[in-house]
Known about the structure:
Blueprint: E1 4-10, E2 20-24, E3 29-35, H1 38-50, E4 55-58, H2 63-74, E5 80-82, H3 87-101
Parallel strand pairs: 1-3, 1-4, 4-5
Antiparallel strand pairs: 2-3
Amino acid sequence: MLQRYGFIVKAPGYDANNANQTMATKGFTTKMVGVSSDDEAMVVAKEMIADGIEVIELCGGFGERSAQEIIAALDSNVPIGYVCFSESENHKLEELLVQDEGK
Length: 103
């Protein structure tokens, strides 16, 4: 039974030493860490794996290419996935990002 989950968020300005949180219940723990680069994500993921995290997800900010590069570099038995949006939701996200660029 899955009991230890890790989630890595990527955004400018995040620092894994300061942008991290652990939520725990009696039977389940989630560790969330913010990073600002793929290299930092690899370091954090290695630490998570060493600490017994059983599944890791990367936020959609990594994109498929970065996520695949991180997964390949880690070469771990721990499943590592990344968040992505459905086609209709991705359209909404793209509109939001275009609006942000105009500000």
